[in-house]
Amino acid sequence: MAQTSTLETALAHARTLLFAEPALAGHQAEAILEAVPGHPAALFVLGAARRRLGAYEAARSVLEPLAAAQPQAPAVHVEWALTQAALGLTGSAIVSLRRALSLKADLSGGWRLLGDLLHTAGDGGEADAAYARHVEQAVHDPALMQAGRALAQGELPVAEALLRARLAEHPTDVAALRMLAELGTRLGRDAEAQTLLETCLERMPSFTPARHNLAVVLFRQSRAEAALTHLERLLASDPNNPTYRSLKAACLALIAEYDRAIEIYEPLLAQFPQQPKVWLSYGHALKTAGHRPRAIAAYRAAAAQNPGLGEAYWSLANMKSAAFACEEVETVRHQLERPDLPVEDRYHFHYTLGHVLEQAADYAESFRHYAEGARLRRSEIEYDAGQTTTRLRRIRTLMTADFFAERADVGCTDEAPIFIVGLPRSGSTLIEQILSSHSQVEGTLELPEIIDIAHDLGRRGGGEDLYPAVLADLPPDAFADLGARFLERTRIYRKTARPIFIDKMPNNFVHVGLIHLILPRARIIDARRGAMAACFSAFKQHFARGQHFSYDLRELGLYYRDYVALMDHFDRALPGRVHRVLYEETIEDLEGQTRRLLDYCSLDFEPACLRFHENTRAVRTASSEQVRQPIYREGLGQWRRYAAWLSPLETALAEPDEADS
């Protein structure tokens, strides 16, 4: 009895050593086998230790006869399968692992290992099925359950540590990959989440939740075309799924297919009417397409179903001309009294009241609400004004006249694009509407592609902070390739045969140098508005995404200063390359400024450009209501009503740029 107890103790110790100290585990097993030759458990430990040490043939000499002698031992067959796989005997390894799983279907990690082997063997269908079994069992896996609890409880650092540890050991664990991707989306790491989910689906194409997650991540990155590919596959197997249908409609709206989006929203809401956020999205599509009364009705339906949905009320306010009923204003005030109101709804309600009170000429109270909405929004985002200043100075340092002269003959020579850049709320939508009223010009959207190219170049150089320095090392043909990439990836936004199209992303002013290098014949228009008017108009506007500089008056002023400094630099380095349109001059002399604009774009004058408000094209920006009216003068001096509270903005605008001092 004592001898048996000693043997079991020695075996237990050897098993404990197996994972951390396989060499010691092997020595312990050999000692046991000297005392008890042929002991199955000791042979198992010895074979496993040798495999972990990379001595695969030595492991084979132990495990192959052991597997034959122990046909009902699943752990032995798993270990033998791993050894066969290491020896390149994939087919035999699959047979052994299937044997193990037939003996114990809930074998920890077994289905994942089988999926890996089948994937290696090129049997995608069987691999998919094996990974599916793994995902089914993942809900009972202690490590994944612990990570799942941490995710559910918002303990994201804990969940991330657990999941990364799991993937370090098992990099093909599709369940862990999807969970880490979900964590990434919560933290705004969409690019990483996309990579994780694509890895999931490469292994397991039938992993429906991962495919839906990927479609969402692609949508969030404005990659609607790619998202739609996945949604079509999801809808093929589940055509009535309301979540898939709603996301498809949102993707279609993202690529300016508003009529198709509306055609999805209408039957969806008829079938599932109690969906306030779907009513909200439907309202956005209707507004952009110019269906004003229907958009207002949709926003009010969303608000009626969920009075705490701040975005529904802000969307009504953002219609500019939509009148608020007294009971709607009281609802907004009542919601702001709720201590449990989520911060996102709270700042939307503050912006709404700011607008309502501005219409009522109560400017002090209006500003208080605008400022509180901005403060709450600012608390949610990461933005460093100093980093922006440094980044733009780096561009000025690199992109000198000599830098451009050395690259005079690079880039794609296509003349189709017109870029309208500047600050938001500076008249860019008016310029776009004027130009898109010309028979040769198509207005599209604020396209993300130039910013995506800049980000990709930064990552290519080892990190985004290396942009724009990485441009100095690009071979000449790379610039033409990037120009062609822009044209190809923006093709989906073009809906007509007009030869010229507009990209109205205002933030592209940062990338004027890049645009010039990759598309040297593209037109670049700087939409400029007076500093105080432009900045205050941006301050009181809640933007659906981006524009993080706009929620603090001082940061706004510094951003405007940096923008002007950069555009002045490009005027010196590339004389005449950028055409500047001053908003105030356009308002006072529409025809004269329109003729100058058309001359710069090498376009003949057409009277329709002066009747821009008759253009029925979809307009997605905050100025969509204004540009559907004749020339809009009301905004010229609005900021003066708030001048008493704008001293932080004035001070920041007056600060000198140290780089020029």
Ordered list of secondary-structure elements with their pairings:
Elements: H1 2-20, H2 22-35, H3 40-52, H4 56-69, H5 74-86, H6 90-103, H7 110-120, H8 124-138, H9 142-152, H10 156-169, H11 174-186, H12 190-203, H13 208-220, H14 224-237, H15 242-254, H16 258-271, H17 276-288, H18 292-305, H19 310-317, H20 326-336, H21 343-359, H22 363-379, H23 385-398, H24 401-405, E1 417-422, H25 428-436, E2 441-443, H26 449-460, H27 476-489, E3 500-503, H28 512-518, E4 523-528, H29 531-539, H30 553-573, E5 578-582, H31 583-588, H32 590-600, H33 647-654
Parallel strand pairs: 1-3, 1-4, 2-3, 4-5
Helix pairs in contact: 1-2, 1-3, 2-3, 3-4, 3-5, 4-5, 5-6, 6-7, 7-8, 9-10, 9-11, 10-11, 11-12, 12-13, 13-14, 13-15, 14-15, 15-16, 16-17, 17-18, 18-19, 19-21, 20-21, 21-22, 23-30, 29-30, 30-33
Description:
- The chain has a 5-stranded parallel β-sheet, with helices on both faces.
- It contains 33 helices and 5 strands.
- Among the domains are: 103 residues, Serine Threonine Protein Phosphatase 5, Tetratricopeptide repeat (Alpha Horseshoe), CATH 1.25.40.10; 60 residues, no CATH class; 274 residues, P-loop containing nucleotide triphosphate hydrolases (Rossmann fold), CATH 3.40.50.
- The radius of gyration is 31 Å and the shape is elongated.
- It is mainly alpha-helical.
- The longest helix has 21 residues.
